Structures are given as C-alpha cells and as structure tokens.
Amino acid sequence: MTAAIKEEARRQLAAEGPTKLSLRAVARELGMVSSALYRYFPSRDDLLTALIIDAYDSLGERAETAHATVADAAPVERWVAVGEAVRGWALAHPQEYALIYGTPVPGYSAPQTTVPAAARVGLLLIDIVRDAHRRHELEVPLLTDELVPEAVRMGAELAPDLPPGAVAALVAAWSQLYGLVGFELFGQFNRVVEEREPFFRYAVTRLAHGVGLR
Questions:
Q1: pLDDT (tens digit, 9 = 90+) per residue, 109-124?
Q2: 26, 135, 179, 211: least CB-packed within 10 angstroms?
Q3: Are 177 and 207 in contact (CB under 8 A)?
Q4: Where does the HTH tetR-type domain start and stop, copy by copy (predicted)?
Q5: What is this structure's pTM?
C-alpha cells in the first residue's frame, strides 16, 4: 500500500507538480478514504519526504552502479562515469529530478532524514578525489586568501583528510554538475547546445580537471 501511495503521488507530481500534491487526491485515486491514507503518511510533507528520499536513493544507486563498472579506472574516468549516470537518471526521471533539484516546494522544509540519501553522489565524488590524493595523483587547486577560512571550514565538515583547496573545488564542481544537468533538463540549452551527450562529457571532464584530477 505504501508503494501504491507513492506511485500515485509520483503520477500527480508529473501531472501537476509538487505544489499541488494532495493527500486527499491521492486517496481518491486509490479508492481510499483520507483517514486511511493518513495512517501511512500523516501529512503531505511526510509523503513529500518519502518521495524525496526515494529519488535521492534511486539517483545514488544509479551513480554507484555506474562507478562500480569503472572502479579500477583512472580517477577522471570514474568521475565522468558518475556524472553521466547522474545525467542519465535525470533524463529518465525529470519530475523526480525537479523535486530534489528544482524550485523548492513552498512551505516545505526537508528534514535531516533526507541527508544520507542526498549525500550518496557527493560522497562518491569525494571518494574519487580521496583515492587520487592518496596516490599522489591530485593537483590541489589554489585558493584565494578570502576563501581560505571557508574552505578550511568545509574541509573539516566534509572531508578532513583532503586539502581545503580540493574540498572547495569539489563543492564547486558538485554544484556545477547539477547545473549542467538542470540546464539540459529544463531547456536552457535549447538552440545553444545541439549535441548534448558529447558536450556533457566534455564539460564534466573539465570539472574533473578543475578539482585537480589528471
């Protein structure tokens, strides 16, 4: 029943977007009374949270599976494989991508329970850079003086075993990866980039170089 509720909610997301998601509408489509559905999801926000965690986990699994196929390759190749997996998942699940990386849902604040799933792709990218650093194959990017304190803070929180310059570059590349995917998914590349796949591979490789992978 939980799976059926979430599947109907995803259908409504695709049709009308997250702002119009309604527990009553979901219950009606499933032939349930609202009070019965509330036993599974006490509020719309609880249902949204479940959908968000599912989306992050699905994306994370896709990226981890792609990385496993090239786990013994050079760091840049591993990085590109993860990036292409993110893009492939987004193109196959546009509404779910929009739910987790699109416009925030008014009135909704994601709880801490979403963090482990949301972190899966980021942790995978950190591991790639960490392996390169251990092998002395990482060219640590330089930092401006004004960014040093923030890079140190991020490094202590996200990857204390990496140089702050690498962590700052990682955060920048991580956000740019999703920017690339979002531009393609939401139409900003229309009449600008026609050959999307080779362009993406070029751009995500440039991101790897920016992090210091060679």
A1: 999 999 999 999 999 9
A2: 135
A3: yes
A4: 1-59
A5: 0.91
